[in-house]
Write a structure and sequence with these properties.
It comes from Salmonella enterica subsp. enterica serovar 4,[5],12:i:-. It is found in: Cell inner membrane. This is Heme exporter protein D. This protein is mainly α. It has a domain at 27-81. The protein contains 2 helices and no strands. The protein has helices spanning 20-25, 30-81. The radius of gyration is 30 Å and the shape is rod-shaped. The N and C termini lie far apart (87 Å).
Length: 82
């Protein structure tokens, strides 16, 4: 098993970043990289939130419609019984 190697060249594979601070610094391009990440993740998070809220609203509307129809049927049955 041993050391990981590049499959094409057989050379040892080195990590892209030597520390977490190097990772977050992104080679001096941290502002642009993390801005791009934020501009990608934020709309996806907003889309997920919107989907959840929209689903709740639709289910609430369906429940209200069913309750309304049940009240109408009950009123109609009461009216026919009278």
């Amino acid at each position: 098993m041993g050391e990981r190697t590049d499959t094409e060249k057989g050379a040892p594979v080195s990590p892209a970043f030597s520390s977490w601070s190097d990772f977050f610094a992104m080679g001096g391009y941290a502002f642009f990289v993390w801005l791009a990440v934020a501009m990608t993740v934020a709309p996806l998070a907003l889309l997920a939130l919107h989907t959840v809220l929209q689903r709740r609203a639709i289910l609430r509307g369906v429940a209200q419609q069913r309750a309304r129809e049940a009240r109408m049927r009950a009123a109609q049955a009461q009216q026919e019984a009278a």
